[in-house]
Amino acid sequence: MSQNPESQDSDSELKRVAIEGNLPLKAVGIENLKEANPYFMPPHRYLHPWFARRPTPASRLAILASILPPEVDANTLLDWMQIKPRDEIDVDIEEYVAGKKRTEDDRDGNLEDHYGYPRPYTRTPTTDEKAEMHELLREHWDGELPTVLDPTAGGGVIPFESLRYGLPTAANELNPVPTVMLKVLLEYAPSVGSLQSELNRWGDRIDELAEEELEPYFPSDGERQTPSHYACTYAVDCPECGCDIPITKKWWLQKQSSSKGVAARPSVSNDGTEIEYEVVRLPDDVEKSEYNPQDGPHTRSGAECLSCGIVMESDTIQDRIRNYEFEYEIYGVKYEKSSGGTAWRAPIPEDNEAQSKAADRIEADFELSSLLDVPRYIGDEDRAGPYGVTKWRDAFTPRQLVTQYEYLQAYKQCQAEIFEQYSKQKAEGILAVLALVAGKTVDRNVRFAPLDISNGLLGNSLGGKHFTLQWSFVENNPSAGNQSYQDTVDRVRDSYEEIADYLRDEDAENVHVSQRDAADLSFESDSIQAIVIDPPYYDSIIYSEMSDMSYVWLKEYLQDIYPDIFSDDLTDKSQEAVANVAEYEEIASDSKSKSELAAEDYENKMAEIFQELYRVLEPGGVMTVMFTHKESSAWDTLTKSLIRSGFTITSTHPITSEMPQRTDTRGGGSADSTLLLTGRKPHDSKTESEAVPTLWSDVRAETREVAKEAARDLLDAGLSLTKTDVIISAFGPTLQVYAGAYPVVDDQDNEIPPRRALEEAREAVTRVLVEEYLEGERLDDLDDITEWYILSWLVHESDTFHYDDGHQLGLGIGVDIDDIKRSTKIWGKKRGDIQLKTHEDRVQDITLPPEERSNRTPVDPEALSYTIALDAVHAAMHVYEKQGEDVAIDWLKERNFDTDAGFKATLKALLQVLPQRSSEWEAARDLALGRTHDALGLEFTPTDFTDVSEDRAEQTELGDHA
User: Fold this and answer.
1) What residue spans of 621-722 are helical by DSSP H?
2) Which pLDDT tens digit goes with each residue over 101-115?
3) Which residues pair with 281 in a beta bridge?
4) pLDDT at 948 over 50
5) Residue from 835, 840, 907, 841 nearest 872 by CA
6) DSSP letter string over 196-256?
7) How many CB atoms lie within 10 A of CB 656?
């Protein structure tokens, strides 16, 4: 979706680029989804954990389309992006890819065979392709190749792909952790090249040195090999009988199905003070009916003593753990069998003795006793601080800390030899890669990393984007088993080798990596031709907080090599451009909340970044922002920052970029599509004070119309977008209208912020979705509350969604959802999100006398009239379920619902928007069938809507409404 070329004639010297025309969005979106397979991802994703990396196809499109001239057609662009069938010559590539997508489920063989070409990230453009492209670029950019800058480079996909095209590339990052990744990815890989033999040699050496030191802490059991994993929990003393109370929620060790797997079975010792364990295999050793590993002693309310049955409340458990009044409890040990393969056994005394030995070692060893004695940054979402994990050393059990320490010591022992034997650049490359290996092992050997019972292995601590103390975790032995240090070396080595293979020696001369605040770059003014930025997303991820765990360890490994990068105790929180409410906990007030203060800080920082980018970009230069966020507040901030910095928004394009319903960002803030929003630096820029204000009344109608047009175009284009993403994608054209009219003011000369335009766009696009997906309904004839409920289901296709989405939807139709929450109980909070309520949640039990009914349910089924149509339908569903068809018919007729158009329209709409496998849909279906169907005089049946779309059949079921 690009702006009309005629609208860009205000600056005749501004050369248009490809992104300001039509792009092959469908083919690129399909390739993005193909890349989302966790078993076949680009190699840079395996170097070290990081967050929110964009897919290769979307990144390539953003880079190439931002610098190539507009005459480059879609086929040529896709060809240069390495999206092209091997054996097809004269073919419309986008239609070819779309056709392959439609038949993907019926394919024989793998995806590469089906599509006729491998995933694009595996293919670097050929020398001839780069030469042809470079010639075109030099013609367009006055004889020089354009420099591509990513000022918030993160995991590095944008600069990496720029470098693969032989372009002058600059990557900047504030955070030290991804800065090390960038150095490996962009500096060492092209300049040093392959390190396979060196990484094998020194990885083996480090493993050997550490394994020898760790032997006393992982004792063997007879002829069995050394343990690889200790499944652990916490145990506190029962205040009644003194017996240990384990705090695990489940006893599974490795679960194959609901009734099959390996589990620990506890029993109380003869003296009644300890818990003893045996490992059982279900159903071979014991039936699940006899023993259910799902039933651990710990529940939400507390933990039950297995000896006397008393329940220790959750608050007491928290106090005990915070005050270190607990023991680490081993309840299962995984080991490698001498014959091959792995197995589980029960813990033996030697396992617990070795655990105590590790604790004693820490007390006696000065270096160990002070290792990571660094206060943790306790953020707003941190779930470990309240349990006493206030320093980074607290995040590790004694055995975990000793284990990581021994690998660190082995690394340091090898460091001097490595610098002696290789050039400085090569030595740094070897040591940087091996440090990343250590960072990956820490991610799965910490009290925040859960036991993954699906395979009996180590879970990932950073996956949830918050630090949470796990009730079942693993003490890992990196020198043994199938998640060993050597396994990690192999994975990181292979990733590095693949990266190095994609680059050439000359690429090392084309790259500049810096670690700075993006609002204070080192580049000269007017020196950069193109900027492609994937900016921080408001409050989705607090990158600095989440990277601290990796930072404190990487500092131990690399501070001698990169003293400037690792000069601070923790990562920089003050300069990071995120909406971090934890920074404003102490200064918030009644007049301004911490959320408002954090939002202001984010807006100011983004404005400073865009002002700096405006400075370094040459006149006529291009900046493309890759933005993936649902919250209109984030869009509001982004737009104001762009416009006030002087950029002219010239085009927007939505691309499917992620697998739907992924969980890689906190609070559901991230959308499933990426919007490419392009701004230009004019040759002659006007100051904000020189701009002539435009009345909001003149802008509002155009805003609604362009949003509707964008939505219809997206629906007709067949892009793989959710309904939410259709709304978000319409934000781009809406903001172009707003930016073109900026500043926008009302009749009182008050500035209208971008969010007002976005609210209009959201409501306008929602009307388009109603026309597209709801058969013959006029929802605006219903009351506002019922309309909001139905639209929420229509748009989100789930009972749970982000609060901001629901709030903005309500504002668009005149409903403040906060005002109706208590009185209607139509929605509730679930971990900060909105959760829609069902008739079971809202209607009083008609089988009970009125005085015994819950006052928490607002809908009275015996009322004779209802002001909210949804209340009437929910009450009818309840009466039918509780008292049967005959009573329901009398109930409906007594209230004249057989002639009530609003009642029928609500029932019909619910049948179209509710998930068809849910109990709520079935309750609505029952009401619209049989004799109640006839009594109501319905002109539709539920079967009219059962095959409305394939999407409807795939909707998720209603969540837990407990």
Assistant:
1) 632-645, 696-717
2) 889 888 888 899 999
3) 262
4) no
5) 907
6) HHHHHHHHHHHHHHHHHHHGGGS---TTSPPEEEEEEEEEEE-TTT--EEE--S--EEEEE
7) 25
